[in-house]
Structure formats: C-alpha cells, structure tokens
Amino acid sequence: MPAHQLAPDIPDAPADVLADEQAHLAESREALRAMRAHAQSLSADAAGDWVSQQILQGLLDQRVAALADHPDTPLFFGRLDRSGGDELPTTIYVGRRHVHDGTSRPLVIDWRAPVSRAFYQASPAEPMGVVRRRRFGYHGGALTAYEDEPLAEGGQIGPSRILTEEIERPRTGPMRDIVATIQPDQDEIVRSALAQTVCVQGAPGTGKTAVGLHRAAYLLFTHRERLARSGVMIVGPNRAFLSYISSVLPALGEVKVDQTTVAGLLGEHAAPEDPEVAAVKGDARMAKVLDRALWLHVVKPEEGVVFTKGAYRYRVADHEVREIVASLRGTTRYAPGRAALAQRLAHQVLVRMEQRGESPDDRVQDAVARSKPVRQLVDAVWPKLTPEQVLFRLLSEPEFLARAAKADLSPEEQERLLWAKPYRSWKSAKWSAADAALLDELADLMERTPSLGHLVVDEAQDLSEMQLRALGRRCRNGSATVLGDLAQGTTPWSATTWEAVLTHLGQEGEVTELTLGFRVPREVLDYAARLLPSIAPGLAAPRSLRPGAGSLSVRESGEDGEDREGGDVLAAVRDALGREGSIGVIAPDALVPEVAATLAGAGLAHAVLSPDSAEEHRLLVVPATLAKGLEYDHVIVVEPADIVEAEPRGLARLYVVLTRAVTTLTVVHRKPLPAQLTA
Ligand SMILES: Nc1ncnc2c1ncn2[C@@H]1O[C@H](COP(=O)(O)OP(=O)(O)OP(=O)(O)O)[C@@H](O)[C@H]1O
Q1: How far apart are the first and last CA of the chain?
Q2: What's the ipTM?
Q3: Mind listing the domains of the chain with CATH numbers?
Q4: How far is the CA of 631 from the centre of ligand 1 (A)?
C-alpha cells in the first residue's frame, strides 16, 4: 500500500487526526518562515569595526541559509506523546531542525536533541516515558499518512510500513539521509560520545556510510562550538563515492564538513606502482625507517662557531655545539629543532657578550641566530629538508636505505623499495599513492600535523597501515568513526582485524557490528555470501531485511562468442529500463569500453562512471573497481571471472560488485563462473 493511503492504525483514532497533523505542519512551516524573516532583518551594523561586521554578516547569512524551508523535505517525520514528569512538553514533533513560534514554544525538535532519542530507541519493553510514537508518511512535501506505535502497553509492535516503504523505495540520484528511519543499533553509534572512537564492521548495505554521516551531523549539533573550531572531516574511497554521498550532510543542515579522499588529503600522487612495492611502502615498519632516514641528516658537529662583532670574536666551541645538538635531537620535531639549534647557538654567543660587559637584547639574539656563521653551521649539521628530498634519497640510494632500514626491512624488501629507474632529482620524481603516505609521515616528523576534532573514515579496511597513521595524525587530539567491512577489502594490504586498524590509527575504540542489510535483497545477498568463506572466513553470513524473491538471475551466454554476451547485456538493460529506478552495468574495468560501445550501438543513452566524475544518468556503466560504496536499483554484472582475474583480491572485488543491487541483480557471463559461486 503506498504511504499516502496508509490508514490510522489505532482503532479509535479520530478521523481528523491527519487534518490536525497537517495543520501542525502548516503552522511549523509558517513559524520557520518567521524565524527566517527575523534572521534576515538582523543587521551586522551593530558590530564595532569593519572586520567584525563582515564576520557577523557571514554568520547571519549562514543562519538565514540554514533556516530555508525545502518544500519537498518533510519538516518533521515523527511525534512522541510522552507521559511527562519533566519540564519538557508532553507532545513533541521530531524533525530535521528546531522550529519555534513567536513565543518560543517548540513546534519541531531537532532529531539530534536528547529528547528525540526516544523516537529511535523507545520500545514496549523500554518505553522511555513515551506513550505513543507516531511516524508520518509524506508524498512530495505533503503529509499524507501516519502510523502509530503504542509503547506503554507492553507486548510487541509489528514492523512499520512507513519504514518498510522507505527501505523499498527505488533509488535515484545521490544518497539520501535516513533521519526518519534510523534503527536502534544505528542510533547507538550515531549518538556515541564525541570522545569515543567507534569502529563499525558491517556487511554490505547495513548502513555504515549512512551512520557515519549522521554521526558527523549529530556531533556537530551537540558540540557545535568546539567542532566549528577544530573541524569534522569525512574520508571516502574516491570522488565518485563522495559525489554520491555529497548531499546527505547539507540536507541535514551541515554544510561545513569537508568530504575528501585519502589522495585529496595526502596529495594526488598516482604514479603506477607494483602492488608488492606498495605493500612494503604501506607497512607500518616504514615509520621507523623514515624516522631514521630523516634524523640521519643531522650529523655530529666537528667545528664550533665564531661570531664577529666589531673588534670582538665570540666563539662557541665544537664540544658545546655537540652538546646542544645532542640535547635537541629526539626531543623536538625536525623543523623546530633546527630553529632551536640556531637560537641556542645565538644564546651562547649572547652569554659571551654579556660576560664582556655588553647588554644585548632579544633583537641581538635573533640577529645572531640569522647571521651567516650560525646559518652555515646549522645548514651543515641540521640541514633544511623537505619530505621529498628525504624520500628521494631513500628510494634511490641503496646504502642510505640500508642505514635507515637496519633490520626492520629484509634485504629483499629494501631491494623492492629502490626505484628500478631512479629519477634525476627529487623535483622530477613521480610519486605513487603509497609514497604520498610516506611523504606525509616525513612531513609530520618535520612539523606537527594539526588535528581535527573528528574524522569519519569510510571503507577503512582498504587503507594501508601508513595511510591509517596519516589519518590518525589528523584526529590525534580528537576521535574517529571508522567504518568498513573486512570482506570488502580489495587492496593487497587490506586489514584482517579492526583492532589492528585502530592501533595504526592511534585510537582506542570499541568495535561494534551492524548485521541487518537495508540494501541487498536476501536472495542476492545469499548468492554473494557464497564467496565469504574464501575472502573473510571469520565473518558471519549477512542478513537482509528485504526478502526480494525473484531478484537474482544468472545468464550464461555459452561459448559462441561475444555477440551473444553483448546481446544478453542489452536484454538485461532493456528489462531494467522497463522498470523503475537506477541501473548500473558493472563490468571488469578492461571491458568497460566494449560494454559502453554495445549500449551506444543499440542507441541506449548512458554515462560511464569515472573516478573523478559525478556522473548522473539513469543508466550507468560502472568499472568494477569504482563500484565500492555505491548502489543501483538494477545491477547487471558482466563476466565475473574477469573481475576475479583482474587483481589479487579479485574475489573480494566480486563480492563488492554483487552486493550493489537494491532490487535486481543479473549476472551475465560467457566464461565459467568462479567455483565458489557455483558451489
Ligand atoms: N535505517 C535505515 N533506514 C532506511 N534506509 C537505510 C537505513 N540504513 C541504511 N539505509 C539505506 O541502505 C542503503 C545502504 O546503506 P549504506 O550505503 O550506508 O550501507 P553500507 O553499510 O555503507 O554499505 P557498503 O558496505 O556496501 O558500502 C542506503 O540506501 C541507505 O540509505
């Protein structure tokens, strides 16, 4: 039954309940308009100077923008009738934002407020002071239905139709927020304390990404001032994924959250690299190697400094310089250590000036620190360096690498690290994605990387230990939400335990699990789960909320050539076009041009998803390596055997690809399917 035809579920509900609720919606909308008009009428002129005026105007503009009413987005989606006993109203409406009337009476309460928690958590077993929970159904922006759950009478409540319809809704366009239907176990994660790092293991479609985004929104609401200063960032696997999730936080009123990729954060280096080399570079042992490599540049001073002023010469003896260097080494980061060395040498010169009866001030000390003899000594003993210079030496000079690596890397590993064809200089070197994390580690050894207040890391199972360290630096004074699925690890260095991920991230946190799938129909999930014993034997088979009978079809095109397979893909696409919702044709990367050509040849308009693009088209051709995190109503997977063959963890890639479907999955193949799927 569509939502707008839902009947009231309580037998004695007055017929005009819906009309009353619609009136409350109209009143709330009007009140929001008034709040916005009031914000617009405020002037920044009250601020004293021009700069303060600009800052205040910026804040007022933000406030006005945040108070915009989006007619298609329900202003509230739930109502709680409470038994009272506290200072809060007995009836509250739960919505995306707070709305109050001219007398400050709350008409809608933000879903993130403490009192709204009961909307998500209350049950007949634990009613949390709620007598009745009401869920609203919308059609466009119009309130068209409601559904009641009595909580004070014990017993059980059946499944919510409004929730089921939301989950069954066909997917089109980018990801949407789930504020109206967050489940109790998801809500626990969303509302965990700011100081707490949470790590969520979850099968495909259990809502990990959704939960991470809502947690960011929750934390920003609850700790607005603190996080406005320190910042919240979302890190996802690629730009296509970021574009898919990009509208969730703005829809929740949060526009100031950076959403980026690891490459966006560490540098867009992408020189091709043998995965075996990348695996050594991604190993946490590299941290020690880099530390030694950097500090090997600080050499034992053999000479002192002579500073001449007028007729006088002030000398700091070599053994004194050695003492200063020794006392600084290991106690500061590299760059401040270098600055401190110059200052300490200058200080020694000043002491001698004072002994001679002069009274030099701070300016003299700075001048001495910047003088030529001091600079020359500092450059010789503690040279100015960039991360690129250090890594360049490490990857091109075998002896230097051996001194830095000591026993931490085997001779074979060292051999692997060295560039087969060294570059002429660090300036012309082409860095790989794995190098980016090494450069970042070196940068942090030189100068402390600032920390954010909270970091959400999605698809974290794919990150190398060195990448995790790089992300860990960015939340070392804050906390993190770490999301992923060990079964979906597709890099050679994919994590095998979450404890290890947290260790490299430098965070102590709890690992929790989400087990109920909201995306993939049961039949499809069971099919994909046949791969689990081979890719993640420790994980339990995922469960799906959606039965989806008839959602799976596997078509073999036989040995008689590609034409038949192309024909099968076309037939599946045409089938899907006749139904509602988005269509993703997921093909091995190497077959993408061929599949696109087949569609074009048949006159079927489509787009091809690329790593940097925000392609929006109902029919998309998706390279297998870009499918992670995405979903389509109808998924057509082309030639699974080639997907498996294409990379070392190809079976895990296939698992990712098979779990993108919301409504139907069609597998089209000519080559035999991987044995695990047919078992
Ligand atoms: N409580 C919920 N109510 C309605 N829809 C939900 C809920 N939780 C998740 N979903 C929907 O289920 C789908 C899958 O969610 P999401 O992409 O967050 O899962 P995931 O665990 O990150 O999946 P994957 O591991 O495949 O990346 C999305 O369409 C999301 O909106």
Answers
A1: 38
A2: 0.99
A3: 3-169 (no CATH), 185-268+452-517 (3.40.50.300), 275-284+387-446 (no CATH), 305-381 (no CATH), 522-678 (3.40.50.300)
A4: 9
